[in-house]
Amino acid sequence: MMRRLLSSTIAASPTISLICRSSHIHRSSAIFCRQMSSTAEDVAMRLKSSGLLRSQGLIAGKWIEAYDKKVIEVTNPATGNVVSTVPCMGAKETNDAISAAYETFSTWSKTTAAERSKCLRKWYDLLIAHKEELGQLITLEQGKPLKEAIGEVAYGASFVEYFSEEAKRMYGDIIPAPLSDRRLLVLKQPVGVVGVITPWNFPLAMITRKVGPALASGCTVVIKPSELTPLTALATAELSIQAGIPPGVVNVVMGNASEIGNSLLASTQVRKITFTGSTAVGKKLMAGAANTVKRVSLELGGNAPCIVFDDADLDVAVKGSLASKFRNSGQTCVCVNRILVQEGIYEKFASAFSKAVEKLQVGDGFVDGVVQGPLINEAAVQKVESFVEDAISKGAKILLGGRRHNLGMTFYEPTVMTDVKSDMLLSREEIFGPVAPLLPFKTEEEAIRMANDTNAGLAAYIFTSNVQRSWRVSEVLEYGIVGVNEGLVSTEVAPFGGFKESGIGREGSKYGMDEYVEVKYVCLGNMNG
Ligand code: ADP
């Protein structure tokens, strides 16, 4: 059955459409309207009966179409088939969503921490109870292998659980007063309505990582998920309602990204924008937020170096760099982008790493054993192709892969390249695909210089058995996250965020809560009376 699935996917149209259509296609007739694999059809049926396949926006607790009935097609990147449609919304719907969030803020922000905590805990329980279906939805619209998708649900849900607990710890301070008749207090209060703009690579976790702490602190939200993966966002919102989170606290709009973004930026009722996505869009949002002096949290692109020193444990280095490089087919902002390998271990590492990469099974994420799904769309494949061509034209060599996979569509071969130099696009830009460039270096100083030679500063990795070196190098790397002898470091209990152009603010951990909290100083005078 799996063979048939793959051959039918190759024959399917490669068009990945993200267009607004003037005709409204009703949900029941629009779902899976082109050739679909039986696996995907089964998934759709199950999702439909679970009530999780939502195809409307959410404003003030009501599921609604775009006011002009325009829709966007959501496609399965593994097949190019249309999965569903969602509304193509714009400024009007966004302004209504903002009004709903603003109105609800007055009540939600006054609930007790215990009440908010209970709601979030219920939401977490529902996310976990539905982790299989949510994982299927992620695979369907995003393409990552099912096991990895279910892992994303658990990871995403962990933020809701963590912040359900953290809600109760939004402590203020009492400051020793400089004058005897005064008492100085510090209160922590929610910032207000938050605009939440998220990307397609983690359709669930990038939402919960923001909405968890926002709701825990008493904020309300208008979420704009990526138009490439809105279905997971809608299912997540549906479960927030089932969890008893009041209508208007969580609103979801999608459609015309710049129109929605501009409405969120222009509104004086929106007090904060939290964004994960490209550095280019992040800069636009930061500039746009200046007009109303909104707070911003930005989690932008990376260019993660992975430094393998001569003294590294080879197996640990191969396993760690492989896990980080090829997670989500290379489409995460903390994926290893450049592997810097010291001369003494270079040949051994290149050989062992290539052998491990060769074993990665590529295919439709619903197929058992597949660990490398498709890239998100044709543009993503073309970008990877252009980076590889640029490197070859400047002298780099292909050790493994280096072209589209014979499955066609948006599948690209897991690739290893050697003789990569610092001036190549593979080194300078975020690849966001399954290509691992190896760059040799001689000394620790040279590796540090190469690693820091970028405007990005999100994650870096080092592999060494020397404990002093691990401290020394971690301290001088200009990155917000450093993995030492470990390639997978993200967790809800630790701060995630970047230096330099990789962003502002931190997500997860106790620091993540600060992003949604205003600090208010209250001075009580004449207290000796
Ligand atoms: P990626 O290349 O990873 O898709 P983007 O930065 O383009 O990264 O997209 C991340 C999110 O930002 C998506 O939800 C996208 O729709 C949204 N977005 C893109 N352009 C704008 C914009 N001008 N204003 C607001 N949001 C935008």
List the main descriptive attributes of the protein structure presented here.
529 residues; alpha/beta; seven-stranded mixed beta sheet; six-stranded mixed beta sheet; 18 helices; 41% helix; disordered N terminus; binds adenosine-5'-diphosphate
Pairing-aware structural class of the strands and helices? Answer: alpha/beta
Low-confidence stretches: 1-36
Which hetero compounds are present in the coordinates? adenosine-5'-diphosphate
> What does the radius of gyration come to?
24 Å
Number of distinct helices: 18
- Please bin the fraction of helical residues: 40-55%
- Kindly report the oligomeric state of this protein: single chain
Separation of termini?
84 Å
Percent of residues in β-strands: 15-25%
Strand arrangement within the widest β-sheet reads 15-16-17-14-13-18-19
The biggest sheet, with number of strands, parallel, antiparallel or mixed sense and barrel status, is: 7 strands, mixed
Spatial shape: globular
Q: What is the β-strand count? A: 21
- On the 0-100 scale, what is the average pLDDT? 92
